[in-house]
Amino acid sequence: MRPIPRISTRGYYDLSNGNPLKTNSYYLYPKKDFKKLVNSKDLTIMIHGLRNDGAGAVAKVLLAKNRLRKLGYTNPVIGFSYDSNTTGAHLIKHAKHALAVGQTIAKKNGRNLGLFIQDFKQSSPNTKIRLMGHSLGSQVILSTLEYLSKKKQNIGLIEGVYFFGASITEDVPSKKYGKILQSIVNKKIVNYYAPSDKVLGWADNEKYVKGPLGLNGASGKPISKYHQKLVKPKNHRFASYAVVLNSFP
């Protein structure tokens, strides 16, 4: 099987505290495949959630790619792989710390992914870029948009954003980041939310994430480019959200 093209920052951050270990921006694998992406009409980048190692990241891209193909999207789907398999994430007693470290690493990766997008758009200015994020991947996307918003020439740089089981807070599309989302995203932000998602419900109850966007949708008055869809996935896993996705882009 041919390798899945991915932008990676694996090994760039300490899995026990989130501190940076390397100063590189990102690396591409396999590098030659990225040359083939130049001048694509459209490109989707899939960003996984917490507790994914390198193999888990690849699996999420395959899930996204196969689902989007079924929905008639034939453009390239690639992955962004980052250090989300934080120390102790699978143990309840370490869950809060592991999530906090994961959130720190996800936020820092906004710069890494933002730099890739800027570099890629320089070599392929007409490619429309879409970002899909599951769970903690929503934080990577948010921080990427925040990083891109620092430069005026990045207005409308991202074509569309798609959140699944998002762990960012419900006020993101209205208050704090509304302006950034409205200016950097060209067409639309779609949030697939599920009040039945037990993992987000637990994170909300435990106050690990106060009011996750993926649980009950947005609060306040969201920006005009924001849309949300109520879905009923079997559980919090991306595989379950992929199944209930019925149109793209």
What does this structure look like?
The protein has a single domain (6-244), classed as Rossmann fold, CATH 3.40.50.1820. Helices cover 37% and strands 18% of the residues. With 249 residues, it is α/β, with parallel strands linked by helices. β5, α4 (137-148) and β6 form a beta-alpha-beta unit. The two termini are 26 Å apart. The protein has an eight-stranded mixed β-sheet with strand order 2-1-4-3-5-6-7-8, with helices on both faces. α2 runs parallel beside α8 and α3 packs across α4 (137-148). Keywords: Membrane, Transmembrane, Transmembrane helix. It is found in: Membrane.
> Biggest sheet: strands, sense, closure?
8 strands, mixed
Which bin fits the share of residues in helices? 25-40%
Number of strands: 8
Compute the CA-based radius of gyration.
17 Å
Number of helices: 8
Distance between the termini: 26 Å
Count of the domains = 1
SSE order, as H and E?
A: EEHEHEHEHEHEHHEH
Q: What structural class do helix, strand and pairing data support?
A: alpha/beta
Q: Please tell me what the overall shape is.
A: globular
Predict the CATH topology: Rossmann fold
